Task: structure prediction
Amino acid sequence: MAMEISAVNRAGPMRRGPYISMITNRTLNLLIRAAMLFMVGVFLALVLNLLQVQRNVTLFPPDVISSIFSSAWWVPPCCGTAAALIGLLYPCMDRRLGEPHNLKREWSNVMRCVAVFVGINHASAKVDFVNNVQLSLTLAALSVGLWWTFDRSRSGFGLGVVIATLATLATQLLVYNGVFQYTSPDFLYIRSWLPCIFFAGVITVGNIGRQLALYEYKVSQEKNHQD
Result:
């Protein structure tokens, strides 16, 4: 009897071992994805904010501009954190809702999505339109076109609208409290096209997050086949 109990005690950790290892790998992969998404968010914030500041679309107080990218110190970390949360949320919502992403899932497609998003932001800063209404309608059409071309999921559209709305409200609070300001505001202290930029950014970061999750899934499947 003592020998049987001893054998069970020795076998127990061996059975739990693969499970503990799997949880550890998932946590590590999650942290790696979050770090990569954070860096993507920081990079996009620096580049896109540079466009806005150079064209005097966004104005920061002179004492907060402390880098070669003409950006307040808090902007890149905030955008990086938001990118990490959004990029992790999108594949999670896909699994929860059982709505697989059926469009072509390749990094080249993701890079095209990033390029279109940068182009939309560039248009908001450098292309001259007759009035703000025409600019806002154009950017809205381009943003929806970006979603239709690179996403087309209901969860993606819904999350994009919700997060863009929340981001717009947060921006209005920052402008209202004098953290920064927009030149020629035409919609409650901000520019009316800002929600379109946020929506396009959410779709772009969501696609990056989905692609990273898909890569992680493929790697884990290959390891399982090898085992």
